[in-house]
Amino acid sequence: MPNNDTPHRNRKWVLEQWTQDVVVASWLRWHEKISVHQAQLVHALLQNCGATAGEQVLDLGCGPGAVALSLSETVGTDGEVVTTDISPGIVESLKDRAAALDVENIDVVVAESEELPFDSEQFDLVTSLLTPMYFVTVSRSFAEIRRVLRGDGRVCLMAWGMPEQGDYFETCVLPFLQRSNLDAPPPEAPSPFRFAPPGLMTGELVKAGFVDVTERRFVLPMSWPGSPEELWRHLYETCVGFRPIFDSLSRDSFEEAYAESMASLAGRYDGTSTVNSVEIVLGIGRKV
Hints:
CATH class of the domain at 6-162 and 190-220 and 278-286: Alpha Beta
Shape: globular
Helix content: 40-55%
Number of helices: 12
Strand order of the largest sheet: 3-2-1-4-5-7-6
Oligomer: single chain
CATH architecture of the domain at 6-162 and 190-220 and 278-286: 3-Layer(aba) Sandwich
Strand content: 15-25%
Order of helices and strands: HHHEHEHEEHEHHHEHHHE
Largest sheet: 7 strands, mixed
CATH superfamily of the domain at 6-162 and 190-220 and 278-286: Vaccinia Virus protein VP39
């Protein structure tokens, strides 16, 4: 049962984990390969969000910027994309990248989803790729999303789906999880599979006042342009939600789990890329 201190503790954890210098450095080091790895996920979000030319779009949790940069092309010079991240280092990196690409219709801002620094009814569309799982307080974040949307504005959020659908988590995480004694996180805690079960994200959207709410699930390929060892190293360095599982193991248990993971991934490596599949869930709704 959450108490009054739960949001504070959750916020502290999210900020500490996702703004660490070592984590930010890892994201910046891997960003080109992450963009390839998540290309099909980005495509699915773009295909389902319905962005059109001239719109004002807010993208929450920009990461390497693949979604924001793609949206900037879609909305064109008559539109604008505002994208946020809680990490100043990530924000500055994307600003530099956008400038180098001569992209002028992107504004990158340090912000938290629970208190968005934007006017009410400022945007036509709000998107987010693999960030909603780490919203500190879901109800407050969804209320803020609704506040900044114009009348009839839309929301399109992506999160990880069920881990047993597809083989990405089965090969990369399950060998470690099976050897870990960590308890499952409470439902209200930020965690990778917070919205995985059917109906959870859409239920929160309905409670926030959105209408025409739909859930869409896809099992998509994720192609890492490198070896299984490199894929797993990137996962460990950048996906901090799984780090407690990995770090909970003894050295012997870790080595056993790692060997099992590499054996499972070996058949998915063609000498150039390591290809897995993963389920994602989209929560889509409209403001009235």
